[in-house]
Amino acid sequence: MALADTSAILPGSWRPLRLATLVGLRWLAIVGQTAGVLFVQFGLNFPLPLTECLMLIGLSVLLNLWVIFRLGEGYRPPATVATVHLSFDLCQLGALLALTGGLQNPFSLLLLAPVSVSATTLPQRSTVILATLAIALASLLSVYHMDLPWDPDARIVFDRVYVIGIWVSILCGTIFIAAYTNRVAHEARQLADALAATELALSRHEQLSALDGLAAAAAHELGTPLSTIALAAREIRDEVPEGPVREDIELIMSQAARCREILGKLRSLRDTPGDPFASVPVSALLAEVIKPLEGGGKVISVRTGAGSGTEPVIRRNAGLLYGLGNLIDNAAQFAQRAVLVEASWDKLALTVTITDDGPGFPTDLITRLVEPYLTTRPRSADSSEPGGLGLGIFISKPLLERTGAKLSFENEAADGHARVRLIWPRAAIAEA
């Protein structure tokens, strides 16, 4: 069961920052830097290289104005351009710190800000580049910098060990923020992509269901005019002698009858096993699910009837059909020759097991099967199959659990044979 257009949903994909975000962050830095410099110079009366500091801040202002008028705030720069912007911000901040005490300046921790922005929004390579640049700047600032602006009559001299401690803290903070924040953001993007893929899958089934309803409505509306055409043609035929005209009228009647047969089939869609909202025996449900998966070179068989009590009647929905289809398709992908789907029931529960004769679940991954983008198959950038992206089980599990099922994953034998077991309480089936 293919997922509708997941080619744009790739694991680890990043969303380009809007230029307005970078510009807004830089304006915030400009305001903060300007206020800080002016307060230290005129509020605290501490000596500062004011002209040089304002020139560095002015560079940020000019860059912001240039990109706004040249590109527009709605522009989404590629990762390389965004990395260059953040690198500029790092270097500008490093130059300001060099003029105002280096690592002795309490605002030296702001070197971590561009790294955190990159870790949450840019690819890992960009984050590594910016983290390396931040560490290099911190190292330079620990050695090369002007004196910390302070009261000339009460100068403070920091011990070298203290400065080294600040450098180590910035180093550790940069590495931690770059690694942790990037990982958290990566997982968040994966989850968002997987949920988007789920929505696409459900949307496809909903569209098919809507088409069924539209077809039935069209059949109902077209039935009357076709009956009128057939009646009028019959009356004309009775008044026309044998000949070419009579043959044409009989052709019209036969084609009208054929149209009525087609419309009759469309009208009955809601009463056939094709109706995704009909209640059907579990054997019919499983037969319908595996039908689109046949012909792939693997034998998919269904075995039902084991157990006691009457056969459960289950209400179909898009999530149930899609979830079961994904699991069976996943088993067929890894099977060597055959997949067996078994259904058993008693007075308390319905159990469905899906077993293949393949290598089985990897023992080190069996507890992580429900994670997104977990797959042992090579991924293709243009794959439209959920399993190809490692989303099959991730999508199927919540869809099936919503119907009341409980899923478990195991290997039938030591040499493989993966088995997925689904258990529905009878009460959940009745409420479904």
Task: List the keywords.
two-stranded antiparallel sheet, 56% helix, alpha+beta, 11% strand, 432 residues, Heat Shock Protein 90
Could you walk me through the main structural features you see in this protein, from its secondary elements to its overall organization?
This protein is an alpha+beta fold. It has three domains: 19-197, no CATH class; 200-271; 279-431, 2-Layer Sandwich (Heat Shock Protein 90). 56% of the residues lie in helices and 11% in strands. A five-stranded mixed β-sheet has the order 2-4-5-7-6. Strands 1-3 form a two-stranded antiparallel sheet. Helix 3 packs parallel to helix 5 and helix 8 (282-290) crosses helix 9. The chain is elongated.
Task: Please outline the major beta sheet.
Answer: 5 strands, mixed
Q: Number of helix segments? A: 11
Summarize model confidence as the mean pLDDT. 77
Strands of the widest sheet, in order across it, are: 2-4-5-7-6
Count of β-strands: 7
Strand content: 5-15%
H/E order of the elements?
HHHHHHHEHEEHEEHEEH
Extract low-pLDDT stretches. Answer: 1-12, 270-277, 378-389
Count of the separate structural domains: 3
Brief description of this entry?
The chain has helices at 19-43, 50-71, 79-99, 112-121, 124-141, 160-239, 244-267, 282-290, 318-334, 392-401, 426-431; strands at 279-281, 299-307, 313-315, 338-345, 349-356, 406-413, 416-425. With 432 residues, the chain is an alpha+beta fold.
